[in-house]
Backbone:
């Protein structure tokens, strides 16, 4: 292949995977392609920056403990390397530099490669795998680009995802400099060189590979939540259903019920009720839990009336 | 100076020396001369293995004696009742390197041996004022008493030797536990169904700087289970002793050089506990009264104070009973602490809530039922001028204010008859019909009246999450000259 995969993995970890967990500046690098993404996880690959790895693992465990009592998580698996590499390509496809007539084709090709990678990544093997992926990609939809618009007495200029040069912000009072910062979510980026629906669909494929994240962000605007094979297989297992219920408990009840109800109705409309059974069970458990909570808050019923005792009001 | 006594010899020169029925020269006393204290201990050790000192103890005296040359030796003096006793002691003394003499007051001649079966007689007595003059076949020497050795003090000063086999010996044990460990050990023994006796003993303070006595728990266990041996031997703060006499015990793992069972020098009313490692022995002058271990078992009281199995009387016949009536009373109103507000007047109560003082709102409790609202306030209900006022005549039993019951039964009987028990509040109306309200349905009037707007706790959680996590800021980098360089499709699946 002629490419140093170790160096690529180091860069991917430091610029994409670690910021995805810890927050801060996320800098997607050169597009990697499906072949490199799927090859990154071969062998036991571990980043060399132990201090950064420790911080990332600590943050992952902290996030995982909001759903399950775990004390340790393993490093990135092959699937997680591939998903991170594909996410790098996906974000790179949204680079505004591609928004020119001669470069849109390259962006489409990168987006297509990322989507292919998502398709080739295997689904979760067990609940620990689901939780591990969630700790990596839980904040995928929180990625936002800060666009800076600098206006001064002679003109105006916009910088997308980069800091405005200091010379433009110099002498702000004299030159009447005004700086406006606008945060744009990853799904609301503009300009976009690729088809927006295909871009959102690629995010949907990524969420389909980490079903716990898919459920934990079901109240999102786009891509719209819908029951997939991975989310259904997650809630079909008792342990997975518990994880899902805990993740959903952190969201507004009314929104969750509306989204899950709509998705379940679409599933039932397909005429395969057997497939929808796990989704219905999840809704039943939520309804039972809510009813139980209401019963607990009510006063206790009076005991039976003994001999000669006046009736209980 | 010393000559052998011949057969049928009747005349002896040594004063106080006579012949017993066997013809053996014998004085009133016997004396063993030993070169040092350790030889004395060896003599006691060997002798007490087979014999008791009980018959010797009456006339037993031990001294450190000093010769004219200044050498110090030890004498072991006892009553020579018979030649048999003298023979036994002489044999033992020979074993430990001592010399045996017999005499009465001052002059002691060598006791018989194989060379002189009838003993010896001193033909020439030393003109001396010394306390003791000993005449032997090898030497003749006078001694003065330097000091007396007390047998009990000697036994207490001797350090027990290490002997781990005593830990495994069967038999009773005496356990001494420090004050903090005593109760726990007692409860452990009780739980393990181990029989024994226990007492608390006190020792004087260890130093002059302490003013409180040292208190320890002492347990006498007739048969300590084998599985507990390691516990009592290895636990710090618990010392296990093996009784070796009526009033003396030696720490387990050690053995006293002298058989203490043969030394009746310890007061049976007291107890001496000899410890190893050179530690001072623990002496108890008078053993405190000991109680059975079972007396310290934890006691449990029944939670219910109600007596069990109370026989109930037969139901009275209906012809004896009279219906309850509530009649107006001319007496003053007292203890008016409740009101019964009909359902139709509840809107008035809501309107009145805006003008009620804070103390009334906080102190009043309300239960809203199908029969209306019942409001109780221990400080008085007059601040709420609604409904029918009630007087609390008994705990959880209310009668209309200004009314009494007929027949004029006591409030206790009335409460019992109406079933006004814990958790149920009974209101008896003017028509003598009662209504019982569960006490749990009463809630604070202020919380019942206030209709607070709902709020969603998830908002706070979301804010907390947002504040604790740094935002992910997507930075745009250069795409390079060939942005798709290296972007290749995945290998074809087999």
Residues:
């Amino acid at each position: 292949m002629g490419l140093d995969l170790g160096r690529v993995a180091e860069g991917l970890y430091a610029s994409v995977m670690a910021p995805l967990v810890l927050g801060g500046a996320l800098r997607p690098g050169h597009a990697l392609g499906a072949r490199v993404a799927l090859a990154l996880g071969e062998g036991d690959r571990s980043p060399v920056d132990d201090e950064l790895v420790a911080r990332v693992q600590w943050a992952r465990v902290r996030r995982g403990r909001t759903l399950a009592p775990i004390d340790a998580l393993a490093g990135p698996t092959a699937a997680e390397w591939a998903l991170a590499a594909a996410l790098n390509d996906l974000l790179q496809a949204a680079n505004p530099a591609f928004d020119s007539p001669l470069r849109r084709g390259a962006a489409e090709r990168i987006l297509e490669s990322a989507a292919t990678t998502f398709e080739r990544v295997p689904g979760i093997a067990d609940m620990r795998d689901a939780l591990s992926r969630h700790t990596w990609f839980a904040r995928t939809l929180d990625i936002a680009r800060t666009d800076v618009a600098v206006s001064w007495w002679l003109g105006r200029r916009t910088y997308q995802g980069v800091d405005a040069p200091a010379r433009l912000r110099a002498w702000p009072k004299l030159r009447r400099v005004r700086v406006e910062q606008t945060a744009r979510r990853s799904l609301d980026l503009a300009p976009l060189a690729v088809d927006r629906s295909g871009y959102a669909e690629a995010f949907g494929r990524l969420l389909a590979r980490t079903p716990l994240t898919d459920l934990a962000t079901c109240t999102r605007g786009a891509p719209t939540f819908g029951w997939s094979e991975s989310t259904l297989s997650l809630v079909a297992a008792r342990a997975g259903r518990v994880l899902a219920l805990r993740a959903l408990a952190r969201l507004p009840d009314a929104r969750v019920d509306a989204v899950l109800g709509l998705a379940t109705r679409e599933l039932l409309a397909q005429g395969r009720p057997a497939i929808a059974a796990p989704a219905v069970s999840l809704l039943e458990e939520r309804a039972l839990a809510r009813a139980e909570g209401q019963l607990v808050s009510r006063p206790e019923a009076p005991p039976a009336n003994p001999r000669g005792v006046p009736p209980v009001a | 100076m010393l000559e052998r006594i011949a057969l049928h010899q009747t005349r002896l020169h040594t004063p106080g020396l006579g012949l017993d029925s066997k013809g053996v020269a014998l004085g009133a006393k016997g004396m063993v001369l030993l070169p040092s204290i350790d030889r004395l201990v060896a003599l006691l050790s060997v002798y007490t293995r087979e014999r008791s000192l009980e018959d010797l103890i009456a006339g037993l005296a031990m001294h450190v004696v000093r010769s004219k040359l200044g050498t110090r030796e030890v004498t072991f003096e006892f009553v020579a009742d018979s030649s048999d006793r003298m023979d036994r002691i002489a044999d033992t003394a020979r074993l430990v390197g001592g010399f045996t003499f017999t005499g009465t007051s001052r002059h002691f001649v060598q006791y018989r041996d194989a060379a002189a079966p009838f003993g010896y007689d001193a033909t020439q007595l030393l003109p001396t004022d010394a306390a003791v003059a000993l005449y032997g076949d090898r030497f003749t020497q006078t001694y003065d008493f330097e000091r007396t050795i007390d047998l009990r003090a000697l036994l207490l000063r001797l350090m027990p030797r290490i002997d781990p086999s005593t830990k495994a010996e069967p038999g009773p044990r005496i356990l001494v536990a420090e004050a903090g460990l005593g109760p726990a050990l007692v409860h452990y023994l009780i739980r393990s169904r181990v029989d024994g006796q226990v007492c608390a003993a006190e020792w004087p303070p260890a130093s002059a700087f302490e003013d409180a006595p040292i208190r320890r728990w002492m347990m006498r266990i007739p048969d300590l289970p084998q599985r507990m041996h390691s516990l009592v031997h290895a636990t710090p703060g618990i010392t296990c002793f093996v009784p070796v006499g009526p009033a003396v015990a030696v720490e387990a793992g050690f053995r006293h050089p002298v058989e203490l069972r043969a030394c009746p020098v310890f007061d049976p009313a007291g107890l001496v506990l000899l410890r190893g490692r050179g530690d001072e022995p623990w002496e108890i002058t008078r053993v405190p009264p000991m109680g059975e271990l079972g007396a310290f078992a934890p006691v449990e009281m029944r939670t219910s104070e109600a007596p069990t199995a109370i026989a109930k009387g037969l139901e009275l016949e209906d012809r004896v009973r009279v219906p309850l009536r509530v009649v107006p009373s001319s007496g003053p109103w007292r203890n008016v602490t409740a009101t019964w507000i009909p359902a139709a007047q509840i809107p008035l109560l809501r309107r009145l809530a805006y003008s009620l003082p804070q103390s009334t709102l906080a102190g009043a409790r309300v239960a809203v039922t199908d029969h209306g609202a019942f409001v109780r306030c221990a400080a008085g209900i007059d601040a709420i001028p609604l409904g029918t006022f009630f007087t609390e005549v008994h705990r959880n039993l209310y009668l209309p204010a200004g009314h009494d019951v007929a027949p004029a039964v006591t409030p206790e009987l009335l409460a019992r008859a109406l079933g006004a028990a814990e958790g149920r509040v009974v209101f008896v109306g003017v028509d003598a019909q009662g209504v019982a309200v569960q006490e749990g349905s009463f809630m604070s009037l202020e919380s019942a009246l206030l209709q607070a707007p709902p709020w969603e706790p998830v908002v706070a959680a979301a804010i907390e999450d947002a504040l604790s996590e740094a935002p992910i800021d997507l930075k745009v980098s250069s795409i390079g000259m060939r942005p798709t360089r290296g972007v290749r499709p995945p290998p074809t699946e087999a």
Q: What stands out?
A: The first strand of chain B starts at residue 2 and ends at 4. DSSP finds ten helices and 32 strands in chain B.
